[in-house]
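Z., the sequence and structure:
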Amino acid sequence: MYESHTLEVDGVFVGTIILETDREKHRFHAVHESVRPLHNQSLQDRHELVRQAESRFRRSRQLRSLHA
């Protein structure tokens, strides 16, 4: 691991984005259940990992509110 950044979506901590030692790939470490399918996903584009996590988290919240 070279460096890491926490990822919050709408004020909720959902995971960490880790820059690998090759300084090219970013890996997602999920801590919130809604983004668990992205755990350990590795991409070169950090912004794409953020976009995917935001999308999954918000979709999960919408589904929960429909069933409440």
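The chain has one domain: 3-67. The chain has a mean pLDDT of 94.

Let me know what you think.
H.
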